[in-house]
Amino acid sequence: MNSGNKKDLFFGFSSAFFYLFLVGILGLLMRSSEWIMLPLPFKNILHAHSHTALLGWAFVMVITGILNYFPLKWKALKAIKIAFSISIIGMFISFLYQSYGAISITFSTIFVLLAYILLKKLLNEIPKEGFDNTFLRRGIIYFYFSTVGIWLLGPTLAILGKSHWLYDAGIQFFLHFQINGFLLYAVLGLIFKQIPKDYHPKDWASHFLDTGLLLGTALIAFWVSNNLFFYIINLISIICLFIGFIPVIQSIRKFVKNSKPKNAWILTWIMFGLAGKLIAHLTNLNYDFIEALRFNRELVIAYMHLILIGVVSLGLIWNALSLFSWKLDKFFKVGIITFATGFYITEIILVLQGFRIEGLNTASSILWLFSAIMLLGVLVMLGTFILLSRKNLGYK
């Protein structure tokens, strides 16, 4: 994280890329579970993977980007940054060690409380005017929303048990507002910070997106109750998301077409990711399909990866490159393409598996191979980013 200068940007982004590298290692390790005996329980690796991805890589990249535009003159910022780093590494190690337990929950709680403090400071700094600022502010608000699901887990586990529907609903609530709310909104806000206001969508688009996001919680209620009322509410949320996202995609497309910004091809991939999100929502029109979707692990993972990698991660990488305004090193470009290629192939395989397409006997091997390719891409980006930073920032 940073306080408004290039060297702080470097430390924030490079630490985030390191967390992404850790996420890639754990992802590849989980893909290896069909052939080797894992050194740790699968669920431990899964929980360390997800927490480091959301609260390490994505959160740090988002906050670093926001602090570039709204640097805090706050004496405690340096201490907060150190505490965040300790809590993230603490979560990574403790979840590997014990999954959900006293130590991992303690580090997670510390992280969330630190996030509350820092995000409140940022919320006070970000103006209310402008499409970009609106997205950043609402993204922060949705972070607070998402953590309601986290605070539900402890009492539910203690009183009702892990098998109770409220436990799963708490996790789904957290992921819904964390991924579709905080991260997606914040990344779009950072992207539109780089786009001239002439290209910004009208304010009504954000209102439809908010309505779609909030009504989207009906899907969680539908999975619990199988009630037609919640199915209809979820359909309304899909309509609102279409109305809201189409002008957002069109705005980015016009900016790319007319302005030809640096690394515009990354923005094109992000538009494809947003379009893919809308297509994924169309599958929810089928009553029987949406009923079974809760238990379709492949499609659930594919959707989460679509947003977290296809939109959020690529958007954060584009934002980092834009903030530094460096000429894109060919090795970094190779790293991004390698990373994105691995993502798209694994995404296609997961979707085919989710729709139970026959003839995927080698799917596990392909998933492992392209997960390894993604990890290689992350390693190339991390190494090149550090070398570029040392060269451009004057490090010896």
UniProtKB/TrEMBL annotation:
Record-linked InterPro entries: Cyt_c_oxase-like_su1_sf
Xref: Gene3D superfamilies: Cytochrome c oxidase-like, subunit I domain (1.20.210.10)
Claim: Transmembrane is one of the keywords in the record: yes
Record keywords: Membrane, Transmembrane, Transmembrane helix
TM segment ranges: 9-30, 50-72, 79-97, 103-119, 140-161, 173-192, 204-223, 229-252, 264-282, 302-324, 331-355, 367-388
Name of this protein: Cytochrome C and Quinol oxidase polypeptide I
